[in-house]
Every structure is written in C-alpha cells, then in structure tokens.
Specification:
This protein is an alpha/beta fold and about 130 residues long. It has one domain: Rossmann fold (3-Layer(aba) Sandwich), CATH 3.40.50. It starts with a strand and ends with a strand.
Length: about 130
C-alpha cells in the first residue's frame, strides 16, 4: 500500500473529532506530513488557544513523520500552481501533493477541490 501523506485538514479533523477522524486516527503511525502542513496544524491549534509548544507536542504525539520542506519539494509545489490555480488549491495543499508525489504515496484530504484537478501524478483520497 502507498504511504498516506496527510493534509492539514486530515490531522485537524482527528484533533477536533470531526467526521472521518476514526479513519485518520488509524493512519497516524504509518503517515507522513510536510513541515508546511505541520505549520498549518500548529497555527490552527494556536488560533484555538493552545500554546505553540503544546501544539507541536500534540502533533508529534500522533507518530506522524514530519518531513522537512526542501528545495526539490518547493520546485514541485511551484510547478503544481499551473494545474491547481483554477481550483483554488493553496500553498499548503500543493506542499502536501508535492510530498505525496515524492514519496509515491497517496494524498489524504477533506478538500473536494483536489479531485477536480487532473493528471497530478498522485492518488487523492478523500477521508470523508
């Protein structure tokens, strides 16, 4: 099975107990997340009143591998802009896709817009 690369929406759904959280919880120990998406998760937790250090620890405690964002991923993320701009995918969305492409994995998200983009070279999995 291809490794799951989680979008921030997936991690946050788990943390907030949203629909599909049980599916994501089962993926944590085998999953990866881009450092860009980790920043999004931490930012959202901080917005809800959690201290940044606690938000970081909460993310680490899931067992998700947090993968540094490097220049190669930056190039793929930038290149994805052409295909995804019309669908409104953000920098974080494209960073997740770039990591999934690099890892030959599957990108896991709640964002329906991702499925409208064709020829990304990666499997998109909607968890809810």
């Amino acid at each position: 099975m291809n490794r799951a690369v989680l979008d921030s929406s997936a991690v946050l759904a788990s943390f907030y107990g949203e629909a599909g959280a049980d599916v994501i919880d089962e993926m944590f120990r085998e999953a990866a997340i881009s450092a860009v998406n980790a920043a999004e998760v931490i930012s959202k937790l901080v917005e809800r009143g959690m201290k940044a250090g606690m938000a970081r620890a909460t993310l680490i405690d899931t067992g998700i591998e947090i993968v540094p964002f490097d220049l190669d991923q930056a190039e793929v993320t930038g290149d994805l802009r052409r295909k995804t701009k019309v669908h409104g995918l953000s920098l974080g969305d494209r960073a997740c896709l770039a990591l999934a492409i690099r890892m030959n994995g599957r990108a896991v998200t709640a964002d329906q817009a991702w499925t409208a983009v064709k020829d990304l070279g990666v499997e998109i999995v909607l968890f809810r």
